[in-house]
Design a protein that fits this description.
The chain has four helices and three strands, in the order H-H-H-H-E-E-E. By secondary structure, the chain is an alpha+beta fold. Strands 1-2-3 form a three-stranded antiparallel β-sheet, covered by helices on one side. It is rod-shaped and about 115 Å long. The termini are far apart. It comes from Shewanella septentrionalis.
Length: 136
């Protein structure tokens, strides 16, 4: 019967410990990459909503311009519910318009939105400055 002599022979292959350690490192790396990807998607979505809110706020300012003389002559017109509703009628779902209570030549136009993933800074505020064009 032959005796098996392992002394001096080099073993080929990996041990179970090496395989398990490499598996743990690989899984940890993949989980970290997945978390980074989810975070990136979250911030990309919030950035898109920020852009939409900025465009909507700019649209509100643009909608005030054609009616500027009317509003400057009759500031109560700015407080009218129908007038305010007309400014935000094309807003996407989840976006809200916040206007000052009364008309001013310099005022902030604010658009807010709800995003459950990001709790802070879910609003855009543009400062609108209108020259006094019409005589009262």
């Amino acid at each position: 019967m032959k005796a098996f002599n392992h002394i001096g022979k080099k073993h080929l292959g990996f041990t179970m410990t090496e395989v398990l350690v490499s598996l743990v490192v690989s899984v940890t790396s993949l989980l970290a990459l997945a978390k980074a990807q989810l975070s990136s998607l979250q911030h990309a979505s919030n950035s898109f909503q920020y852009t939409v809110a900025t465009v909507q706020a700019q649209n509100v300012i643009e909608q005030i311009w054609p009616r500027l003389c009317e509003v400057q002559k009759q500031p109560a017109r700015f407080e009218d519910i129908n007038f305010r509703a007309s400014l935000s009628q094309d807003f996407p779902a989840g976006f809200d318009l916040v206007l000052p209570a009364t008309y001013q030549d310099n005022m902030a136009i604010t658009v807010t939105w709800q995003d459950g993933r990001v709790d802070t800074n879910n609003s855009v505020s543009l400062n609108a400055s209108f020259p006094h064009l019409c005589k009262v």
